[in-house]
Amino acid sequence: MALVPLESRLSAGGAGIPVTFIHGFPLDGRMWAPQESVAWGRPVLIPDLAGFGASPWPEGGASIEDQARMVASTLDERGVERTILCGFSMGGYVALAAAALFPERLAALVLVDTRAAADGAETKAAREQAAARILKEGTGFLVDDMLGKVLCRKTLEENGALVSRVRALMAAQKPDAMAGALLAMRDRPSREEALGRLACPVLVIVGAEDSFTPPAEARAMAAMAKDGHLVEVSGAGHLSNMEAPEAVNSALMTFLKRLSG
Ligand code: MLT
Q1: CA of 101: how far to CAs of 70, 72, 194, in Å?
Q2: Whole-model pTM?
Q3: Which residue in 49, 182, 186, 259 has a CA-CA distance of 20 to 30 Å to 124?
Q4: What is the pLDDT of residue 1?
Q5: 236 C-beta closer than 6 A to ligand 1
């Protein structure tokens, strides 16, 4: 397939190795607004994955590995050799694919509410059904379903502004890209071995109430990594960087300060 150029924002923000934030599904780079506003003392790169936000969906579709290759091209275009790759959920699958394909470009890896294991048979079947339904009916049903899964009860009950923001972000995504990304996630392999081989530091962040990619899986990923660190964030579900930005930013800042370069 043809790799398409990804739309991305690069903020200058200081010296050192840049942090690249990779969004989840069905979202785009704007999900990182609570991180983009922080002075990390490093440049920050935020791409929209192919098909999401302002990036086009390639005609032949894009696997999770293709998405990782397109992130690498974006780094090339920006003259970035090595990066601290921070991926949320589907973005974590892309970051883990990058760790398998070009580990030498990763100065560190941050996995936010994601998993290294492949999908089981039930999840694969559900993804296929959802992809087919999107192409017939549009994305509304999935947006409703996802909202209830990615946000914790407290957010759903008490933070209407955030619920509306996340709904608008999800509703803005393109149906063909959403259907294609579901199939790409279905087909991704386990990255447990790649994670275990990775030499660079790995930070795993998880919302304590994440029922989508639960804390038990996050603990297992941190234990799998040679230099793994774990932070569990209370008062957050799956979308921890938006639900509990201060705690997530503080965990990330502590981790970044320990890195050289
Ligand atoms: C995400 O939050 O990026 C996705 O929901 C992940 C998934 O469906 O596995």
Answers
A1: 12, 10, 9
A2: 0.97
A3: 49
A4: 57
A5: no
